[in-house]
Specification:
CATH topology: Amino acid/polyamine transporter I
Structural class: mainly alpha
Distance between the termini: 13 Å
CATH architecture: Up-down Bundle
Strand content: under 5%
Order of helices and strands: HHHHHHHHHHHHHHHHHHHHHHH
Largest sheet: none
CATH class: Mainly Alpha
Radius of gyration: 22 Å
Shape: globular
Oligomer: single chain
Number of helices: 23
Helix content: over 70%
Length: 511
C-alpha cells in the first residue's frame, strides 16, 4: 500500500509523461475531487432556481419523470467522460482529450466551446444565488429588490468567490468538502420540514407523476421537453473533477469516480428533495405566477420565519456551488493557456508563487461571468418587453456550451476506435469495458437532442448568444489560432501509442 508521498511522486511522474510539470498543489483526496463536482451540480441551485421553469412547462410530472429521464442519460455521459479522464489525466480535460484523439484544431475548438459553457455556468450559478439572496436581504434591510440590486448582489458574490479562490486550493478544498456535506444536510432539513410541518399536508404520491398540465401556451409534449432545462442545467459542471485532476492524488481512479458519483448522488438526493417540495404544493398556479416559484412554495408550506430560515440555508448552498465553479473554470483556462490557446496566455497560465493558484485566470473567470450577465441586463433595458428570463438565458448558454464540449471527445473516441487508433490498451484503470461503445453512442444522441431543446423558443436568446460567440470564435481561429496555438504537449509531441509506451516503462520502473 503506497503512502501519500509515494503516490504523489508517482502522479507527478505520470503527468511528466504527458509533457507537463507539476505546478499546481496536488493535495486533493478522492472525497474532495467528488465534492467539487457535487457542489457545482448543486441540486440546491439548479433544481431550485429553475423550479418555476420546470413547473411552468411540465407541471408536477416534470419533477417525477423529467428529473429521472435526464438523470439517466446524464449518467451515461458522465460515465463516458470518466473513462476518458482515466485514460488521459490532465487538467486540460475535454480539449486535451479531443486534441490527443484527433488533432490540435478540434482540441482548440473544444476548449473554446467549453469556455463559453463555463462562462454561462458560473454566471448562472451566482445569478441564481443573487436571485435568492437579494429578496432575503431586501427584507432584512428594507429596500426593494430590483434587477439592478440583483446585479449588484451578483457582483459581490462573484467578488467573494474570486478572493476565496485566489487565497488557495487548501481553503477551497476544505470548503468544497464542507459544501458536499452541507448540501446533504440542507436537503435532509428541507425534506423533514416538509414531511412533518407542511401546513396543509402533502399531496398523494401520484401527484408527483401527474402529466398533462402545463401553464405555458405550448402543447404539453413540447412544453415538457422545454421544461427539461431545469434538470439538464442542474446536471452540469461535473467535468470539474477532471479539471482538478492535477491537484488530485491517485487521479486516474479518484477523478473518474468523482465525475460519476457526483451525478449519481445528485440524482438520488435531488429526486427526494423535489418529491417533497412538489408534494407540498397546493396552489401550482400561484407558484407559477409568483416572482420565484420555489420561494412561494416553501413560504406557503412552512410559513414566514421558518420558511425564511430554510431559504437562507438554500442560498448558502448556492454560494458554495459558485465557489466550486470558479475553481473549475479557472483550472480549465490555466490548462488551456499554458498551451497558448488564449490571447495573453502567459498571464492566465501564471501561478501565484504565494498561493500556488492560477490567480489571474481566477479573476478573468470572474470578469467574463459578470460581463455575460451585464450584457443581458443592458439588453433588457433597451428591450424591457423581452419574453425570456435572465436565468433561462444564462443556463441555456451553459448547457449547450458544456454539453457540446462534452460530446466532442466522446465522439472522437468512437471515431478513433473505429479506425483502430484508440485501442483497449489505451484505457485507464476506470473503464466501461464492453459497454463503452453503446454508452458512448447513447451519450452523443442525448447531447444532440438536448442541445436543440435548450435553444428553441422561448429561449432563443441563448441561441443568438451562442451564434454570436461562435462567429467570434471563427474570427479568432483566423487571427490567433494559426499563429500561436501549437496544441497540448501530449497531442503535439506524443501519439497515443507513444504515451502508452512511456506509461508501460513507468509501470516497469515502479516494479
Amino acid at each position: 500500500m503506497k503512502n501519500k508521498d509515494q503516490q504523489m511522486l508517482e502522479d507527478r511522474k505520470q503527468l511528466n509523461r504527458y509533457g507537463y510539470a507539476q505546478e499546481l498543489l496536488r493535495d486533493m483526496g478522492g472525497f474532495s475531487n467528488f465534492a467539487i463536482s457535487f457542489s457545482i451540480i448543486s441540486i440546491l441551485t439548479g433544481a431550485v432556481s429553475l423550479y418555476g421553469h420546470g413547473l411552468t412547462y411540465g407541471g408536477p410530472g416534470m419533477m417525477g419523470f423529467g428529473w429521472t429521464i435526464v438523470a439517466f442519460f446524464v449518467l451515461l455521459v458522465a460515465a463516458s467522460l470518466a473513462e476518458l479522464a482515466s485514460a488521459i489525466p490532465t487538467a486540460g480535460a475535454l480539449y486535451h482529450w479531443a486534441a490527443t484523439l484527433k488533432g490540435r484544431r478540434i482540441g482548440w475548438y473544444t476548449a473554446w466551446i467549453n469556455l463559453i459553457g463555463q462562462i454561462g455556468i458560473v454566471a448562472g450559478i451566482d445569478y441564481s444565488c443573487a436571485l435568492f439572496a437579494d429578496p432575503l436581504l431586501a427584507t432584512v434591510f428594507g429596500y426593494t429588490s430590483t434587477d439592478t440590486t440583483i446585479l449588484i448582489v451578483f457582483g459581490v458574490i462573484l467578488l467573494l468567490h474570486g478572493i476565496l479562490n485566489h487565497v488557495g486550493i487548501k481553503i477551497v478544498a476544505k470548503l468544497n468538502d464542507f459544501s458536499a456535506w452541507y448540501h446533504m444536510l440542507v436537503v435532509a432539513i428541507l425534506v423533514v420540514s416538509l414531511a412533518f410541518f407542511t401546513k396543509n399536508g402533502l399531496q398523494p404520491i401520484d401527484y408527483l407523476f401527474q402529466v398533462g398540465q402545463t401553464f405555458s401556451d405550448k402543447p404539453y409534449f413540447l412544453a415538457f421537453l422545454i421544461g427539461l432545462l431545469q434538470a439538464q442545467w442542474t446536471f452540469t459542471g461535473y467535468d470539474a473533477s477532471a479539471h482538478t485532476i492535477e491537484e488530485t492524488v491517485h487521479p486516474r481512479v479518484r477523478a473518474p469516480w468523482g465525475i460519476y458519483n457526483s451525478v449519481a448522488f445528485s440524482f438520488v438526493f435531488g429526486f427526494i428533495m423535489l418529491a417533497f417540495v412538489t408534494l407540498s404544493i397546493h396552489d401550482a398556479a400561484g407558484a407559477v405566477n409568483s416572482d420565484n416559484a420555489f420561494i412561494y412554495v416553501i413560504s406557503q408550506a412552512l410559513g414566514g420565519t421558518f420558511g425564511s430560515i430554510v431559504l437562507w440555508l438554500v442560498t448558502f448552498a448556492m454560494f458554495f456551488c459558485g465557489l466550486s465553479s470558479i475553481t473549475s473554470f479557472s483550472r480549465m483556462m490555466y490548462a488551456f493557456s499554458r498551451d497558448k490557446g488564449m490571447p495573453f496566455s502567459r498571464h492566465w497560465a501564471e501561478i501565484s508563487r504565494k498561493f500556488r493558484t492560477p490567480a489571474k485566470a481566477i479573476w478573468l473567470a470572474v470578469i467574463l461571468s459578470f460581463a455575460l450577465a451585464l450584457i443581458d441586463y443592458l439588453t433588457k433595458i433597451l428591450n424591457p418587453n423581452a419574453g425570456y428570463s435572465t436565468i433561462a438565458f444564462l443556463t441555456g448558454v451553459s448547457v449547450v456550451g458544456l454539453y457540446v464540449a462534452y460530446g466532442i471527445p466522446i465522439y472522437l473516441k468512437l471515431e478513433a476506435e473505429a479506425k483502430g487508433i484508440f485501442l483497449r490498451k489505451h484505457y485507464g484503470p476506470w473503464s466501461l469495458g464492453k459497454w463503452s461503445k453503446p454508452i458512448n453512442i447513447l451519450s452523443i444522441i442525448w447531447i444532440l437532442f438536448i442541445s436543440i431543446m435548450m435553444v428553441i423558443p422561448p429561449n432563443q436568446m441563448a441561441a443568438y448568444a451562442l451564434g454570436g460567440m461562435f462567429i467570434i470564435l471563427i474570427i479568432m481561429d483566423l487571427s490567433y489560432y494559426k499563429k500561436h496555438f501549437k496544441g497540448p504537449q501530449a497531442a503535439l509531441e506524443k501519439s497515443i501509442e507513444e504515451i502508452q509506451r512511456l506509461e508501460e516503462e513507468f509501470e516497469h520502473e515502479k516494479e
